[in-house]
Amino acid sequence: NPSTALLTVQFDAARAARVELALFDLAGRKISSMLQGDVAAGPHSIDWNRGDHSLPAGIYGVRFRYPGGSSTRWIAHTR
What average pLDDT score do residues 40-66 get? Predict the structure, then answer.
């Protein structure tokens, strides 16, 4: 999905856990930690405004890490 200044990430936590949601470039460099901490079980929605992060247009990974695994989704960022 193309993204501009605001990125909304939704996820469902199977149980209460410590999680990390981070934005990476194609070279694997972390651009920003969008969320790092404990979440309750259930659905969550995180709004991330790129703010001072002057991201060039391109493809970025949003990585969700949780106990026992991780998941990455790719987004196209447009200006």
Answer: 85
Fold adopted by 2-77: Immunoglobulin-like (2.60.40)
Q: Is the dihedral of CA 67, 69, 75, 79 positive or negative?
A: positive
- 8 A C-beta contact, residue 25 and residue 51: no
- Which of these, 16, 70, 3, lies nearest to 44 by C-alpha position? 16
Identity (one letter) of the amino acid at 70? S
Spatial strand order in the sheet of 2-3: 2-3, 69-77, 58-66, 17-24, 30-39
Would you place residue 66 in the very low, low, confident or very high pLDDT band (cuts 50, 70, 90)?
A: very high
Return the domain boundaries, the chain: 2-77
Task: Enter the tokens of residue 5.
Answer: 């200044």
DSSP H stretches of helix in the chain:
none
Q: What is the pTM of this model?
A: 0.76
